[in-house]
Amino acid sequence: MLKLHDFCNRAVVGMGMERLGEAGPGVEQRAAAVADAACELVDTVTPRTWSAGAVEDVADAIDVLAEALAAIDPEAARALAAVPAATAALRRRLAPAVTDDVAEVPAPRSGRPRRRGLGPGWKGVRATG
Q: What share of the chain is helix, strand, coil (3-state, %, to 5)?
């Protein structure tokens, strides 16, 4: 099994990659930049240096990249179908909601009932005649 640090040290071509065509303008450069940034992140972090914001950013990036790769073909989509659930579980596990730690303060009430709007697109009553 290829480990992440092995990926960061060499180019890897997986099964089925040879059937892909030539990359569009800027795609290879951007993909290489994402891979380089991921390797730099791996070199920088330890289990104790993550923050909730950093976990959220990386999980968002994983979701976006998986979605982009899933668009290649149905087989790629099936292979990546579990990624959104996995990143959601990661968020719940490593970045608990801040609201759990903060007491909820109810909004002050004025004593009179709230006004209700008529909703978007309301044009008023039309009278004919």
A: 50, 0, 50
